[in-house]
Amino acid sequence: MGFDFCSFSSGSNGNCYLIRSESVAILIDAGIGGRRIWEGLQRTGTDPGALRALLLTHEHSDHIRGLASLLKKSGDMAVYANENTWGAICAAAKATAKGRIRHFVTGEGFTVGDISVKTFAVSHDAAEPVGYTLRCGDRQISVVTDTGCVDDRLFAEIRGADTLILESNHDEDMLKYGKYPWFLKRRVLGNEGHLSNAAAADIVLRLLRAGEKKRRVLLAHLSRENNLPETALRTVRNILEAHRDSVGANLHLDAIPRDEIGLLYEI
Ligand SMILES: [Zn+2]
Ligand SMILES: [Zn+2]
């Protein structure tokens, strides 16, 4: 059963991910404009008519900036968000959703065509931020970005993933010695901020130790100021090697580009 993932944009400049089966297409977040999303659909050969759902993680502008323009372009696509996230989005953007909003209770699930969706809480300074696990047949993808930490409860939500979209936001030294003001550094580094490259490596290590399974981990939501794709990949690989778990046959590791449409991955 076909089940694909593609990032249209990732990071503070805007986040939007496509997940599609043979019959439906789902977007996670609309942090870029409708026109760029349409370009992504075209480049991946996705019929815009298959677009059934937009799943929102939280209300920060890099995740909802393109909401109104996307809603105008997409006739019958439903928008899924919990009530607190929806409540925190500005009225002008919400007005375009007219009757298409579906509220979920965080922790619960729902289905969109042949894809089942599970929601779970993450730790981030927003109203009620969530991550998602999507299943189609026996395949699973989990998306965890914008979280300051991954505790046991959150890890349990993602440990079955064949493909994991995992935040690897910053290199801690680049952030600490960089030009961000102190309050922002504290926010990013905090428990409700963003995962560092080293924190992402710890999670990958836990995943590898959680069982023999071929997995793909795509590092996401990389900071423009405080990270580089090669820095993120090198940090994760170094930490895995230090623990003698090499990035070998059981793990395919990659970084998602920030400003461009990424590769189309089969899950
Ligand atoms: Zn955020
Ligand atoms: Zn974000």
- SS content category: alpha/beta
Q: What is the 3D shape?
A: globular
- How many beta-strand segments? 14
Tally of contiguous helical segments: 10
List low-pLDDT spans. none
In percent, how much strand structure appears in the residues?
Answer: 25-35%
Can you write the helix and strand succession as a string?
Answer: EEEHEHHEHHEEEEEHEHHHEHEE
Number of domains: 1
CATH architecture assignment name: 4-Layer Sandwich
CATH classification, class level: Alpha Beta
Bound molecules: zinc ion
Q: Major β-sheet, in short?
A: 7 strands, mixed
Mean pLDDT: 94
CATH level-3 fold name: Metallo-beta-lactamase, Chain A
Share of helix, binned? 25-40%
Q: Characteristics of this structure?
A:
single chain; 267 residues; alpha/beta; Metallo-beta-lactamase, Chain A; seven-stranded mixed sheet; 14 strands; globular; binds zinc ion
What does this structure look like?
The radius of gyration is 17 Å and the shape is globular. The longest helix has 14 residues. The chain is of the alpha/beta class and 267 residues long. The chain is built from 10 helices and 14 strands. The chain has one domain: Metallo-beta-lactamase, Chain A (4-Layer Sandwich). Helix 9 packs across helix 10. Strand 7 and strand 8 form a beta hairpin. The protein binds zinc ion (2 copies).
